[in-house]
Amino acid sequence: MTAQIISVGTELLLGDILNTNAQFLSRELAALGISVLQQHTVGDNHGRLEELVEEAKRRSDILIFTGGLGPTEDDLTKETVAACFHDALRFDEEAYRQIQDHYARTGRTMTPNNRKQAMVPVRGQKLPNSQGTAPGAWFEDDGCLAILMPGVPWEMEAMWKEQVYPRLCQKAGCVLHSLVLRVQGGESWIDSQVGHLFESENPTAAIYCKAGECIIRITARQADEESARKSCREYAQKFYEILGTAIYDEDVPGIEHTVIRLLTEKGKKAATAESCTGGLVAQRLTAVPGASEVFHFGFVTYADEAKHKLLGVSEHTLETCTAVSPETAAQMAAGAKSAAGADYAVSLTGIAGPGGGTPQRPVGLVYLGGACPEGVWVKKLMLGQRSRDVIRQWASQQALDLLRRMILGQPVPDARLYSPEEVEQSRQTPFES
Amino acid sequence: MTAQIISVGTELLLGDILNTNAQFLSRELAALGISVLQQHTVGDNHGRLEELVEEAKRRSDILIFTGGLGPTEDDLTKETVAACFHDALRFDEEAYRQIQDHYARTGRTMTPNNRKQAMVPVRGQKLPNSQGTAPGAWFEDDGCLAILMPGVPWEMEAMWKEQVYPRLCQKAGCVLHSLVLRVQGGESWIDSQVGHLFESENPTAAIYCKAGECIIRITARQADEESARKSCREYAQKFYEILGTAIYDEDVPGIEHTVIRLLTEKGKKAATAESCTGGLVAQRLTAVPGASEVFHFGFVTYADEAKHKLLGVSEHTLETCTAVSPETAAQMAAGAKSAAGADYAVSLTGIAGPGGGTPQRPVGLVYLGGACPEGVWVKKLMLGQRSRDVIRQWASQQALDLLRRMILGQPVPDARLYSPEEVEQSRQTPFES
Description:
Two copies of one chain form a homodimer. Chain A has 433 residues and is α/β, with parallel strands linked by helices. Chain A has 15 helices and 18 strands.
């Protein structure tokens, strides 16, 4: 089956808003095994829309529209598509009542032109809108399907999940199940390890990369939910066999959620001590609801004075080793753990750029410290000539992974564990390298 | 003049990436006074691309392509468009040398198929790529123009600014000048004040809103740079007359840049004390290069114990007034200013949700404190039933605006200034309300 996505709205053609609907629908259709041939964006213009619909109808099995369902004269998607699909529109009492209810609930006054939104297909079906006023529509003609949804992203996504997706599954005689693996590491490393697993047709696996981590989405298409779930799980196992503990979690929005969950499960507390990331790690942790139970103290020690005063980093270390050194990172983490009375603490100190780099300490050099009951892990990152923002994101991701591994008692790759005595000694004498 | 935007790339049709290029180009073309009739996305398929180009060429003066200029067999935009525009391609030594240089600079090995990227129009023009390997192309045929640029957003944006935009201006016999006003406040308030100023045709003014602030972009089209600049400035003046000090800056990426600039200019230092935002304000400030000169200390005091221990908030206040109170906000700010030895400090304490709300202290209630030489400002925000993320963003924006107004010595709207003595007294007795 093939599809085309048609977004209607002059505000898209003016660049006032970003078309995220087209990406959402493309991804969902790909998962359903439906090929998207083209995406189009047109304005609220009857002639051009009609021409486009007639052409698209000749070429594809399914046309998916978003936008143009509003109450104003400009909004003419429904009328135009109805005509192209040899259907007509009728006034629907129930839809009108729902629109009235929606206005009453949100305390707004309804205008007469809202009657237009209550027009639904005569032969086709209406698609209820659980998030707004305009119902969607479903037309069929000559083996071709037209599905009309609102342009507001959350209304469209809800209608897709509640109304459209189940109907398309039924039509295709299948169900889908998806599973998302979150993997610590850069794209090229992950691709070199598991690149061959992205070739599969069912289940499919797709990779999306962010600073310092990748998201792998596995989707299986089967006759029933149980088989789809099983097929997903079996395919995920192939990734676990190769990537091991680099897979930090499943179906979470980010590693900070994993860390907060682990701390909560184990009844432990963590603290942060940040220089180059300036509060980014603390901010990510506290973005998770419930973080207040397990994260009480964060230190943003941007100046040497702050590192000394709040975290007890030795002035001798700051002078002789500088602030960007394994010794400073270790003392920051140890100091934060102790000042906060926490079970774990992570620290970051480095050169985020664009200025401040030297040949010995280039932009992108970051030291992480990780204090745990056994001592302090120190890890050196060379994040290269990336932007300040990407360096900070990448470093924060690595710090959260260090925290995760400490809580789980896992070894930390490419890092060294110093004993509490060695950290204490580093106040006078640098670590041996 | 009318244009169509054609994005080429199977990854777009699969939903793997979001099409930000179409929005960028639509906005730029609108500013140039060129109407975008349609946007299309097609895969790397010769037949479908050819059909689309032939149709689009009949309907518009300018076709703008992004993507499909890479070195692989799949990338066939240039060949297809050349044929539709009755042009041919030739091997270009200079372009080839630039590709070789780019590979040498980035330490990668060139493959034979990179020769394909050095093919340029015979009758048309090549468009140098300052950010990557693939040059763009410019074809003209029968009064219609085809402009081919890479799909990678930063390569495309650079080529647009350096090569395409100047040529289109010359063709249109005009220049553009833009100016961006950053305004503190929500969309409905700003729209109620200056909504009528968005109707103008030249200069145009467009508004984009983010949490707690809006961005107003004014663009003037004139025969020369000087007149365009003047026309922009005059139109901006109309906004200043109505919005006054709510306009916090021009042409900056965000209020944190304004705050760091002001602190640097005045040789002052600021500190932060955050509860509900958990480091977000510190993180925003330290995202600005050079922040280290004026921001030395940040405190993330998520627990009551941390507020007492690090900032000296009175235990009596935490018990009787609770952590989410004007007294706590004031003492946090005063404590941070003093502990950091800073000139200014801002504090935030509130309920970000989704849990933790009560009828007296609902989700979205946030108190800001602002310590300055004259005393401590306290401001109460009611951010309502928004998401945790939006509440935190909104609160951080307000805190940075409070900091800005203190540095400038401006009054803070809807806030109250307590004297140092009143703040001291609040450790024993709540503020009078």
